[in-house]
Design brief:
This protein is an alpha/beta fold. It is 34% helix and 18% strand.
């Protein structure tokens, strides 16, 4: 199931404007890599984001913005970011009411019990959006089936590269 793309605006405690909208990302880059994180306490989320930070330059070369979305209020997101040992090179959006996570159909487990607490119920999700056309398109979705089920950094880079290489110019718009 591919979630429908919807614009959003969330508080940003990382690099870039605060608040940050998907429209802001769309005007600045060709691709967006959305990382829907699980919880403030999730060590695997922190490891994933640190790995992405180590490859921030590579994503930048591909004109792809990495946008982690933490289902926490602004102050918790700020505290989470400050616990990183490396510099945080991209936005970190605070989705305290989980509105964007729900709009993008972030998976949860354990039914109603899991929905009571993100740490036990919320699962990771990663999306790559192609923002080059008139309408943004989801070109890759990884919906975690378990806490540690998330794509590697190299898999996300490969997805962006693959879509970038498959782009066909419209010869009515560009001299081919």
């Amino acid at each position: 199931m591919t979630p429908e793309i919807s614009d959003f605006e969330l508080p940003n405690v990382g690099v870039g404007p605060d608040p940050l909208s998907l429209s802001d990302v769309d005007t600045a880059t060709d691709f967006a890599v959305l990382l829907f994180l699980r919880d403030y306490h999730c060590p695997k989320c922190k490891t994933q984001v640190e790995s992405m930070a180590e490859e921030a330059r590579r994503f930048n070369e591909l004109n792809a913005a990495v946008v982690p979305i933490l289902p926490e209020p602004v102050e918790r997101a700020r505290s989470w970011k400050e616990n990183f040992e490396t510099e945080f090179p991209f936005p970190l959006l605070a989705d305290g009411d989980k509105r964007v996570a729900e709009a993008y159909d972030q998976p949860t487990q354990y039914g109603p019990v899991g929905s009571l607490h993100d740490l036990i119920g919320r699962l990771p999700q990663s999306l790559v959006l192609d923002l080059r056309g008139e309408v943004a398109e989801v070109v890759f979705t990884h919906r975690g089936d378990a806490v540690g089920d998330r794509p590697s950094v190299s898999e996300l880079i490969d997805e962006v590269e693959s879509v970038q290489e498959s782009f066909v110019f419209d010869c009515s718009l560009v001299d081919c």
